[in-house]
Design goal:
7 strands, about 30% helix, alpha/beta
Length: about 270
């Protein structure tokens, strides 16, 4: 199988870099083909702007979605964007390896998403072409976040001060990865990343290796697809599903056995 690792950390000696290198070695030894997009090393342009569209529809006003769709359809995207799209088309699974900064991915990785997930390539909008939430153009590909986190696991628990990690990652899992149709795996999380001892790292390494070797067998988070019958014409969850409950968990299947299994994220904390 083909695996793309999208990696964002400016320090080659970081824990994130060590885990990225581990992933390359483990996956390659297991017989998979691996490519790495090292965004800092590539000097990736993080901001989407008019320079991304070589044959503008409108020079007076920049409309990102329209220009993105036109550039993709006309083959006038920039070469760096097209190169990353080729990697995505090649990949059966994508691992996003990054440190958790300010409750999100680093800006350079968010910029990769904004530029590479072009209108027409990763998703479609307008009329009956609303390809999103499980039915986008990246359907059939797997995605997993591998994140190093500075704080302790308790801060990211259901009652922790930072909020539950499953809720905090929902915008990435559901809004960035599931939106264009990818099957999203539970994340691999390393807490208190700045406090690991050599012995701690040995455990991290063993646990991550296990997750990597099961990359194509681990059950994905059971998000409800847009056109799977759970939402009405206004894209509201139907009344009989989840009753009067609210919150982000209602957008996952009510199969409690499956949900509970998925929510037992593989985490390492010290």
């Amino acid at each position: 199988m083909n695996v793309l690792i999208v990696y964002a950390h400016p320090e080659p000696k970081s824990l994130s870099a060590s885990l990225k290198n581990l992933a390359v070695n483990v996956l390659t030894e297991a017989g998979h083909s691996v490519q790495v997009s090292d965004l800092y090393a590539m000097n990736w342009k993080p901001s989407i702007d008019g320079e991304d569209f070589l044959d503008r529809l409108n020079l007076d006003r920049l409309h990102i979605v329209k220009e993105s769709g036109n550039a993709f359809a006309e083959g006038s995207q920039t070469t760096d964007v097209m190169a990353e799209q080729e990697k995505l088309c090649w990949a059966d699974a994508v691992i996003f390896q990054f440190p958790y900064w300010w409750f999100s991915m680093p800006a350079i990785m968010k910029g990769w998403v904004e530029r590479v997930f072009a209108n027409g390539f990763a998703y479609g909008v307008g009329g009956n072409n609303r390809q999103r939430y499980g039915d986008g153009n990246l359907k059939g590909k797997r995605a997993m976040l591998a994140i190093t986190i500075g704080g302790p696991e308790t801060d990211y628990s259901e009652r922790g001060i930072n909020g539950a990690i499953a809720d905090l990652l929902f915008p990435i899992h559901h809004g960035i990865l599931f939106f264009p149709g990818m099957s999203v795996l539970p994340p691999f999380l390393v807490y208190r990343a700045d406090h690991l001892t050599d012995a701690d790292y040995q455990q991290v390494e063993a646990d991550y290796k296990d997750r990597l070797l099961n990359l194509f067998t681990t059950a994905p988070i059971p998000f409800r697809s847009q056109d799977g019958g759970d939402y009405d014409e206004a894209y509201q969850l139907k009344p009989l599903l989840e009753g009067h409950h609210t919150g982000l968990k209602i957008h996952q299947s009510t199969d409690l056995e499956t949900r509970n299994a998925i929510e037992t994220y593989t985490t390492v904390f010290f």
